[in-house]
Amino acid sequence: MDKRAFQFSPVQRYLDRIHEELLDLNDGAVADYIPELTRADPSWLGIAMVTVDGHVYQVGDSRQSFTIQSISKAITYGLALEDRGLDQVLGKVGVEPSGEAFNSISLEPGTGRPMNPMINAGAIATTGLIESKPDAPPMQRILEAFGRYTGRPMQIDETVYRSESDTGHRNRAIAHLLLGYGILDRTPEEVVDLYFRQCSILVTARDLAMIGACLANNGVNPVTGVVALQSRYVEKVLSVMSTCGMYDFSGAWIFNVGMPAKSGVGGGITAVLPGQFGLGVFSPRLDAKGNSVRGIEACKRLSKDFSLHLFHVARSTSATVMRQVYNCAKRTSRRRRSAAELAVLAEQGHRIRVYELQGELLFGSAESVGVEILSELARVDYLVIDLKRVIGMDQASILVLSELCMRIADQGKRLFFTDSKNLYRFRKHLQGNAYRGQEPGPLHFEDTDHAVEWCENQLIAQTDSTGADTSVADLNHQYLCAAMTHEELESLRHAGREREFKTGERIFDAGDRAESMFFILSGEVEVWIDTGAGQPLSHHLRLSSLGPGMVFGEVALVNEKRRTANVSAAMDTRCLELRFDAIPDALLVKMLMSMASHFANKIERDTQLIQQLA
Amino acid sequence: MDKRAFQFSPVQRYLDRIHEELLDLNDGAVADYIPELTRADPSWLGIAMVTVDGHVYQVGDSRQSFTIQSISKAITYGLALEDRGLDQVLGKVGVEPSGEAFNSISLEPGTGRPMNPMINAGAIATTGLIESKPDAPPMQRILEAFGRYTGRPMQIDETVYRSESDTGHRNRAIAHLLLGYGILDRTPEEVVDLYFRQCSILVTARDLAMIGACLANNGVNPVTGVVALQSRYVEKVLSVMSTCGMYDFSGAWIFNVGMPAKSGVGGGITAVLPGQFGLGVFSPRLDAKGNSVRGIEACKRLSKDFSLHLFHVARSTSATVMRQVYNCAKRTSRRRRSAAELAVLAEQGHRIRVYELQGELLFGSAESVGVEILSELARVDYLVIDLKRVIGMDQASILVLSELCMRIADQGKRLFFTDSKNLYRFRKHLQGNAYRGQEPGPLHFEDTDHAVEWCENQLIAQTDSTGADTSVADLNHQYLCAAMTHEELESLRHAGREREFKTGERIFDAGDRAESMFFILSGEVEVWIDTGAGQPLSHHLRLSSLGPGMVFGEVALVNEKRRTANVSAAMDTRCLELRFDAIPDALLVKMLMSMASHFANKIERDTQLIQQLA
């Protein structure tokens, strides 16, 4: 992507502007509770934003390292949830705001359970829950977890760590209290040491924005694609950030700023707008509550200037995910059909309906799509739901759509999903559940074209009188010969030459000189192109398949003198090859009339389709 | 819409199931703090859900009336914000969770400001802020506000009101304390009376779901379309519901259930999943904290079974809102062009690019669309952003897109928005801002076709050598005559008849017998259809406009024998009319060859376009 896109972006220019404005804000003081932190340059200011698309914006000292401090609490909490599960973690640490300062001890009377994981007591208890694996001690696992969020290997600032360790008497006291209540399984020394190291991990404002972006993006790092946190725990981490992340002004923070956030005394703040972006700000001057003064101000301005708020989300309706709906009376599959087959599809094709979805399916949009489908169900027998452009499905939408599958099967209708290969959980769920009551047969197709062709074949097979699927057809089935008398057909037959091709045999190649057309008498041919070098997977792209009663190569009569695609016999096939220069003059006008008429009708259908699509 | 769609809906069946299961849950007791409430039938259970699409699901006693009680606090808070603005309301009532029970007095030390509007003290202070208008006293205004949410006129249960009033000593005490602190402007008697009446408003579970749906739908009632609450205050009401709505277990509620909610001692609960739905549950048995036992359980099950959570939102990226992108080398406007003009567009059309958006634009998606546009900007001179399928734009996306306008104007490119008529705030903002630096000329077009035609005209006008825009063309410019010699053209001219039409004159009508074709020699004609009765607005739908060098009516030579559209002279126009039966045999084959070839090329382009669109 063109780098200038970001440079000229409205977002970059906005961040540049608030960076410049905030340089004038000099309130607050650098943290001094441990000596090492006082060495920070109070003038540092870095701002970064990373969107869920993985676009990175940064300005100022966004690459300056500093220690993560309390922001680590949110990440470690997520790792503890992954290690121990919800119940075990909730048994050790609560989720209620304490209404008190970050270093308050706030243990629940009786159980000694810290009120929440964002205060020191809760964070120490959380760190104590991180598992040790045979080949990965807890600290290594913590560093690796942080690295999944930031997308780079993480390191500890050893000087800050020693400084924390030398002065962390209150945290040691907390750990001993927790041990006394049975909250810790390990020695207080061990847990507190881990906690000090975790707080001393070096990050940049860019890292903080990337951490926020992972949480905004359902747990997936939007740049590397790595899962930083299992999606089911993302909402839990964001919940405690929203109710407890900003200590004793969490209510006002959500009310005014409306972004779950976490700050650290190193001067960093990570803020998250779920579904949209992560914001990282670094400026070492802190207010009395230990939050970065400029960091808070940056979050406030961004929220105010753009009216951003976590409760402002995209409505989840069919209008947001339904890309288009069409039926197959007007738009058939790419398979070329005989006139008789086309007549069946023109009359019956409305019984096949295709729904193209796009974007992210949630409960609301899945429900809305379901209603739209069910409300038309009486008029439809085959339904194809195209998921090619769907970028995600949550648990609710999976349940709603798989229930829908069963409702549709109950009604004796067939439903297919296409292009669902990236929606692994959905496919798995369907395999387990939605098949019940469904007739045997495919439920998924690679693409919509194949699914529609399958449905069309059913419709055609159900219509006995069409003469479709016969394995032989005479010239009088050919649209080009529609207006000819028996004698004219005979003279045409004599002008041509019968040819036979074995399965797989090439009839002609793209680029060949084109001097004849082929009427198919029996068998089947495939028209295809080679998608060429550089695309290792799909060399062979089928454009159409043709059967008895159809013609190919005829356009060259009026147009290009070279073949534009390859044609092969898909089974043993018999054709009448007719050289253009052998067509009797008297028949040429009739064939041209038929051809132009046929094309005009095709153009009319295509035009309707294009207007429908566009 | 087919009613059965809802009946068979997975959502209806799910609600039916939890309704049945919850009937077995008989914990808790009907409220007895006022005598009137004890008359409720403890077995009542009504559940309703209303989606942001306005789909209504209900089961059980969903139409049973009961008094709204504390759920009214959220609605009145919204009305107070509209009446007084944010600052004035925040001066009287805070937004921090109190961590205490609903009837706690919880006033801020010193100021006497109630901690939040969801406890009684805060709610009484809030009710005291509702303005009295000359023709609408506060109670009438409150009833009208509630009615905007529910979509029906609201009434008070007079018996419950009197019972509340007779026993509400604690609330009177609170009001007097508030008066003492200067929080109230009116007499405590007056304010408490309003408060008792507000709590005695009769609602059903369906009403509660509708209230929730308004909050989920950015303040707009999804069934009536009425604005229940100005959108900028919706996030404020949801914020206090999320941090304070469930009293002293708000932290756990957000963590576990993840839906802002409010309960009342009448047995009702309203829960909101922003962007998705409102849920209303009614069951009179309460737990010790005054919340409906079955109501809480219904919210919990729904949240758990579908993994619903307010932090689980659709990602806001270009993948969710970009419906398609195309350039006009392959897909031109509906205006029919001469061969010379088409050649210009084939070569230069890539300089016009159309972006079709759909769904709801938020900060994230607007940013992402902006990056996509800017990254290709060097290759494009005209940009058309089609907003026809956009159902909403928030403030952030308006700012980002209007900044984008200016960036594009800075680069000397032209940007147009089409079909933006429903996006009033966006248009207004652009008028005020984005025009700066933009060349004079249109910024909005009614539809994309007209915008693209405008851009095409610019491209064609810039290309001098094309011979386009000449006002006269001879037969040799006609594609049907491309292969003819001078002598053949002369014989064709003699076979035809020159005709002149005045501006506005009808050349033929749809349905007329078709026995000739018309070569345009000068002027311009319009092909159009009447969209017919029942559509009062757009009777005249232009299909195309044609100029010198083009032909119309020619398809009838090979096809229908009736006209399929009307053709009128758009200006004074001269044509050569050629009767089909007058075409010399020798020329017929040439014309049919040209026609079939032309159609074949058109089909190829259309096929490419369809594949691109599909």
TrEMBL record, chains A, B:
Residues covered by the STAS domain: 342-431
Gene Ontology molecular-function annotations: glutaminase activity
Lineage, top ranks: Bacteria, Pseudomonadati, Pseudomonadota, Gammaproteobacteria, Chromatiales
EC number(s) stated in the UniProt entry for this protein: 3.5.1.2
Name of the top EC class for this enzyme: hydrolase
Family: Belongs to the glutaminase family.
Protein name, per record: Glutaminase
Entry keyword set: Acetylation, Hydrolase
Subunit structure as annotated in this protein's UniProt entry: Homotetramer.
Keyword hit for Glycoprotein: no
SUPFAM superfamilies in the cross-refs: beta-lactamase/transpeptidase-like, cAMP-binding domain-like, SpoIIaa-like
Cited PANTHER family: GLUTAMINASE
Catalysed reaction, written as an equation: L-glutamine + H2O = L-glutamate + NH4(+)
Domain Cyclic nucleotide-binding: 480-578
Gene Ontology biological process terms in this record: glutamate biosynthetic process; L-glutamine catabolic process
Binding positions for substrate per the UniProt entry: S70, N120, E164, N171, Y195, Y247, V265
